[in-house]
Amino acid sequence: MLIVLPPSETKAPGGQLDPMRLSFPELDPIRQALMDQLASVDVETMMDQLKIPATKRAEAEENLALRDAPVMPAIQRYTGVLYDALDAATLPADALSHLAVGSALFGLLLADDHVPRYRVSAGSKVNNKTMKAWWGKAVTEQLAQQDFVVDMRSGAYQQLGPLASAMTVRVEQADTGKVVSHFNKQYKGELARSLAMAPNIADAASISDVADLASAEGFQVRIDGQQLTLLV
After folding, report:
1. pLDDT mean for each 10 residues of the chain (232 residues)
2. Containing domain of residue 131, as a range?
3. What is the pTM of this model?
């Protein structure tokens, strides 16, 4: 089972001056083309194209030299509420092996892939081309090779590699049925951590299996087709 997380706009700085290490080599031609295109324009043009505010100019400048930038594991590069709840630094290697991240720049990453800090989002346009157009069916084809996918990506990132057979997750208030927005990422991070740590995760191959794992960890869940609703 592969749990696919959304990336974060904020990313940890630093890392080691080592080469990038990326899984899913079939995605490399698009990755390389995107990095080439980013490096071919000046900072002002890039900021305009990617809608990067002036206060984030330094992040735009990092896009110009991605191949020479410090790298760190993807699961440590991404930050924010979901990743705080995931607390990847305390996860064992076998749990991390079940985690992936959807990325506008890299398409799909495994937790231990080594990546630089960058500033490209699902809503960006590179060379006046949407990220959905850049990725086409490439990410979907990689996800389709997985035994079972738990897709926790946001809608914009799901569009970069939709997979009809994937299980999605919705967070809902148990008493009102309303979608939880403010703490959505926190609950998804907690669920991802619990699933990755579950003793029987390797045997999970359906939404029913995932619901059983979540229930065993104390989550209240409901199955709605291919969607697992987390009741909080």
Report:
1. 97 97 99 97 92 92 96 98 98 98 99 98 94 98 98 97 97 90 93 96 96 97 97 94
2. 2-231
3. 0.95
Q: For residues 97, 231, 156 and 84, what is the CA-based torsion angle, rounded to 10 degrees?
A: -50
Number of domains the chain is built from = 1
